[in-house]
């Protein structure tokens, strides 16, 4: 699913604004403590504005989760098809993933919360089915890294190792930034690019 860009039509940018505000609220308060009132207050709007697009808080949470995954897929797409060895593609995909975790910090925090909801929360059958679809997106994303890691092993640029465990360790290490990263005043995309490369460097050297 591709988000409509702001300004494409009036209803779309209002919906995007709701999603952005909800991502901030869910990151700050967590799923359980966040209410539609909190999101409305963040927007300085009425709850009706939100309910016009989303029937429940859970539906809104799922939308934030979905958009967060879209950002990750879009971020690594250029690196997947770049010229060079599989090892170089893996490095580029890891840097792109790390930077996306920083660029879309609020959204990726919600994605991580979604995994916990899938494991522990009581939901309706319909909600659980939707969440399973979102978890499948995460599995598909992970598979992209498993594929290129196996290719790097096959070409001999990386030693043979357990592909599944290695991939989970690599992605888990980069995703840990949701806990320690905080955007700084006057921070630029170039700053986040540099930080992303520093995050990836120890993993690349380890491989």
From TrEMBL:
The keyword Nucleotidyltransferase does not apply. GO terms for molecular function: DNA-binding transcription factor activity; transcription cis-regulatory region binding. It holds the Pfam family TetR_C_24. The keyword Aminoacyl-tRNA synthetase does not apply. Residues 12-72 form the HTH tetR-type domain. Keywords: DNA-binding, Transcription, Transcription regulation. InterPro entries: Homeodomain-like_sf, HTH-type_TetR-like_transc_reg, HTH_TetR, KstR2_TetR_C, Tet_transcr_reg_TetR-rel_C_sf. SUPFAM superfamilies: Homeodomain-like (SSF46689), Tetracyclin repressor-like, C-terminal domain (SSF48498). Residues 35-54 bind DNA. This is TetR family transcriptional regulator.
């Amino acid at each position: 699913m591709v988000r409509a860009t702001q300004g494409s039509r009036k209803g779309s940018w209002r919906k995007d604004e709701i999603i952005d505000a909800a991502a901030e609220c869910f990151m700050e308060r967590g799923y359980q403590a966040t209410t539609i009132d909190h999101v409305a207050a963040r927007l300085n709007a009425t709850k009706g504005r939100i309910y016009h697009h989303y029937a429940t808080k859970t539906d809104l949470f799922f939308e934030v989760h979905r958009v967060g995954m879209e950002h990750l897929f879009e971020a690594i797409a250029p690196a997947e098809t770049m010229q060079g060895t599989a090892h170089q593609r893996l490095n580029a995909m890891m840097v792109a993933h790390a930077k996306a975790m920083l660029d879309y910090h609020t959204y990726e925090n919600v994605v991580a919360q979604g995994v916990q909801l899938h494991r522990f929360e009581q939901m309706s059958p319909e909600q659980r089915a939707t969440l399973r679809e979102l978890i499948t997106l995460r599995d598909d994303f992970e598979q992209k890294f498993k594929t290129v890691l196996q290719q790097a092993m096959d070409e001999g640029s990386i030693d043979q190792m357990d592909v599944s465990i290695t991939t989970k360790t690599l992605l888990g290490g980069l995703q840990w930034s949701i806990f320690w990263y905080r955007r700084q005043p006057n921070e630029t995309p170039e700053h986040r690019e540099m930080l992303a490369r520093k995050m990836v460097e120890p993993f690349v050297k380890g491989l």
